[in-house]
User: Which sequence fits this backbone?
């Protein structure tokens, strides 16, 4: 734990600090626009839906696909996520050479594209109410931009209709979308209907660097988190009520979940699209607590490690994953009890994972009903204050509160950790101070005998015999 903290803390001195304290330069990251093959091999498209555009390129129409390159023996050499709207430059099953262009995309905007040929018809796109003309100062060109309407019943959208006027697809337009087609014009599959500009070059100052690392380690909930789906299923749009749009996801077993997305937010999924559990339905930062609830502990730990590493890699710092994993394990040490079974726990009690597992093992061995619970994610401050030792917790933060609670509940500190032993001036439980080494007694005559032979302080084969209790202790460990 100490080594992990030092390994993460020391490179932290190289990260961008809080710029509002010291006034710093904003570092810009340039966006990648193409993807090239690192290895030669065969292309395999996994879960990718495509349409052919006017130029004959394949345009990706879903978000959860991947492009995989295999060698001749079928072994996977590389795998890349393929973004919505990307143009594929290779075919499924085709050969690629090293350095060959695979995919290209526009990194500076989110695009809304049509999957069908037909006629684009505007609905609820009303000048001055849901749309206004915006002139670009640099180019002098004007574009129609969707704005938030005070009337929530007005839902700006583009319908793609066939020659008989039948609606093939509906595309909702979020506020801030720039229209790229005109009302009544013919469109082909793969054509861009609207674009939502991203920050052209994301400024990584306030949200990057140390504050981002702190945000992740403290397991803070983001301000406006993205809503994620809890089940695999097919998306269906509902109506708008009280500034929220309803989205329904229907699973294979006919189970339906309802989600409410803020009106005007950019919805990532189209009607009829298939989504997997844990996928965001809208743009925005993902709440780590949602990942834990929907996708489980392993996925959350992977997310934490990847996100923290990204901050350090941006500054060119290499840290071994194991240090971040040690801390993420401590953040996930707690379990919230849901059903008590035959245990002595209380409902909603927060219990140490190892104590919870030991108690359940004991109950199962006795043929009794085990307790059930779900894992919790605690920030490092909260996790430190939740420790069994009140002396250790009091030495960290909120000293008065910790000591008052300990006194009221009559807690006993068994001095098992490092900090509490240092505070009490005892030998720390590490190395020779570990519990099963404490009982070793060397008889006085042995020490005197060593002094006479001039071997005091050295080991002889005679005294290297392990005492019985050490053998037992080591075997247990």
Assistant:
């Amino acid at each position: 734990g100490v080594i992990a903290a030092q390994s993460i803390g020391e490179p932290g001195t190289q990260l961008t600090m809080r710029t509002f304290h010291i006034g710093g330069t904003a570092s810009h990251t340039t966006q990648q626009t193409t993807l090239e093959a690192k290895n030669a091999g065969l292309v395999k498209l996994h879960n990718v839906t495509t349409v052919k555009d006017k130029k004959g390129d394949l345009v990706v129409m879903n978000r959860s696909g991947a492009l995989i390159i295999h060698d001749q023996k079928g072994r996977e050499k590389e795998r890349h996520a393929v973004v919505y709207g990307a143009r594929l430059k290779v075919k499924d099953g085709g050969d690629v050479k090293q350095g060959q262009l695979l995919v290209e995309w526009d990194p500076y905007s989110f695009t809304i594209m049509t999957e069908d040929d037909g006629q684009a018809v505007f609905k609820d796109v009303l000048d001055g109410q849901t749309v206004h003309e915006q002139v670009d100062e640099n180019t002098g060109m004007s574009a129609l931009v969707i704005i938030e309407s005070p009337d929530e019943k007005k839902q700006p959208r583009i319908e793609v209709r066939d020659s008989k006027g039948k609606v093939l697809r509906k595309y909702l337009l979020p506020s801030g979308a720039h229209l790229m087609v005109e009302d009544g014009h013919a469109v082909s599959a793969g054509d861009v209907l609207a674009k939502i500009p991203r920050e052209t070059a994301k400024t990584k100052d306030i949200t990057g660097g140390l504050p981002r690392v702190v945000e992740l380690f403290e397991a803070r909930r983001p301000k406006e988190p993205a809503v994620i789906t809890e089940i695999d299923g097919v998306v269906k749009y509902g109506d708008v009520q009280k500034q929220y749009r309803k989205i329904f996801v229907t699973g294979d077993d006919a189970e339906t979940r309802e989600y409410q997305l803020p009106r005007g937010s950019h919805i990532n999924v189209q009607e009829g699209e298939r989504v997997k559990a844990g996928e965001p339905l809208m743009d925005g930062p993902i709440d780590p607590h949602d990942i834990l609830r929907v996708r489980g502990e392993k996925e959350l730990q992977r997310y934490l490690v990847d996100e923290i590493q990204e901050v350090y890699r941006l500054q060119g710092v290499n840290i071994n994953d194991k240090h971040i994993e040690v801390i993420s394990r401590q953040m996930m040490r707690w379990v919230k009890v849901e059903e008590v079974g035959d245990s002595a726990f209380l409902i909603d009690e927060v219990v140490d994972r190892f104590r919870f597992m030991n108690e359940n093992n004991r109950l199962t061995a006795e043929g009794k009903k085990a307790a059930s619970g779900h894992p919790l994610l605690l920030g490092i401050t909260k996790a430190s204050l939740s420790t069994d030792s009140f002396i250790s917790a009091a030495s960290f933060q909120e000293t008065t509160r910790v000591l008052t609670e300990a006194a009221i509940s009559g807690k006993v500190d068994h001095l098992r950790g490092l900090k509490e032993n240092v505070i009490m001036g005892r030998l720390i439980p590490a190395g020779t101070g570990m519990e099963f080494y404490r009982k070793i007694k060397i008889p006085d005559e042995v020490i005197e005998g060593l002094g006479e032979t001039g071997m005091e302080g050295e080991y002889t084969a005679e005294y290297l015999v392990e005492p019985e209790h050490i053998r037992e202790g080591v075997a247990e460990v």
Summary: Residues 297-314 form the longest helix (18 residues). The radius of gyration is 30 Å. The domain at 2-26+205-238+251-326 is CATH 1.10.1790 (PTS-regulatory domain, PRD).
